[in-house]
Amino acid sequence: MAYWLIKTEPSTWSWHDQKTKKMTHWDGVRNYQASNNMKSMKVGDLCFFYHSVTERRILGIVRVTREYYPDPTDETGRFGMVDVSYVEDLLVPVSLDQIKLVPELQNLALVRQSRLSVMPVDEPSWKLICQMGGKRA
């Protein structure tokens, strides 16, 4: 199993929306690096659900339930999407500011490439962020 972080603007698709609907298509990604990350996702992989823009914090966890397939909203045919399903809330949201204070998390793309919308998370970082959020990894 691999671990990921996926970002969304809460005004477009929020954690509340995800929890209510349970499953959604993760579409609209138009960055090649983020798209390549999505191509690497496998069914069962876990993702942190991150609100970008003003909130900049991880709120919960979703699971990949369908691997990469064509995104019908992409007129060029170059980009795809995955499906993700709600797993659980973090007991305590973990902010980007908190992550930046932890030396062990400085390797994360979230810190180094803050604009990337889909990024891998290594297992030790996953466990540490889960712990910060009040969850066991």
From TrEMBL:
<dbReference type="Pfam" id="PF01878">
    <property type="entry name" value="EVE"/>
</dbReference>
<protein>
    <recommendedName>
        <fullName>EVE domain-containing protein</fullName>
    </recommendedName>
</protein>
<dbReference type="InterPro" id="IPR015947">
    <property type="entry name" value="PUA-like_sf"/>
</dbReference>
<dbReference type="InterPro" id="IPR052181">
    <property type="entry name" value="5hmC_binding"/>
</dbReference>
<feature type="domain" description="EVE">
    <location>
        <begin position="2"/>
        <end position="132"/>
    </location>
</feature>
<dbReference type="InterPro" id="IPR002740">
    <property type="entry name" value="EVE_domain"/>
</dbReference>
<dbReference type="InterPro" id="IPR047197">
    <property type="entry name" value="THYN1-like_EVE"/>
</dbReference>
